[in-house]
Amino acid sequence: MPTITDINAETRDLCDATTTSYTAATLLRRINEAYERIVGWILEADGLWQWDDTNYTDFPIGTQTLVDGQSKYSFNDKFLEIEEIQIKNDDGDWAIIRPIDQKEWSKFEPLSEDFSEDGLPEYYDKLTDDTIELFPAPDDGSSVTLASGLKIKYRRTACVFTSAEVTTGTKAPGFISSAHYALSYMSAIPYCMKFKKDRVALYEKRVAEYKKEIQTSYSKRERDKTKQITFAKRRFK
Asked: Alpha carbon 41 to chain centroid distance?
């Protein structure tokens, strides 16, 4: 399995570059940019399987403590898309709440007026990429468990490389290993556009092949789903 050391070495080989001509800082920036693009390809193709970077040590689930009367909550900037939001009621049971758009709720009055009394949240509106608003706002705990009472399941971005990880050199990208060198080709292109223009078209073609391989692989993956063996009928004369 290619590691960041292998990927960096391959990138420089593709460019006929050295550690002086293609500095570590510039290469790291471009590797991470390519990494983010590949995550975008995966999420585009991600059908029944919910992908997550294998380098993360936790699950893409976050919890947050609710505050009496507070309707707006912000989250970590690493998540890309909300999958599901749950609220814990006063009995300690989790319930899924539904997304809603304030603009579509009513043309005459805002949601905050329809849900003016605090209570057990039933809906959420995504205000920005990292902020949601609950309706109604949670109460003082009579119908909601405030402590770690908000749970969000999300899709998140790549677990990108740090300079320290480049120095250690053992970390590998968190997607299929057969496509790890896609990062090398993608990072070689900007350098070659300036110094080796005759190689750009060839490397762009290779990147397109990697993209197809990645998306084909992830589009066929499924969540835990029971496989059944079926028998084909045959006719006998």
From this structure: 11
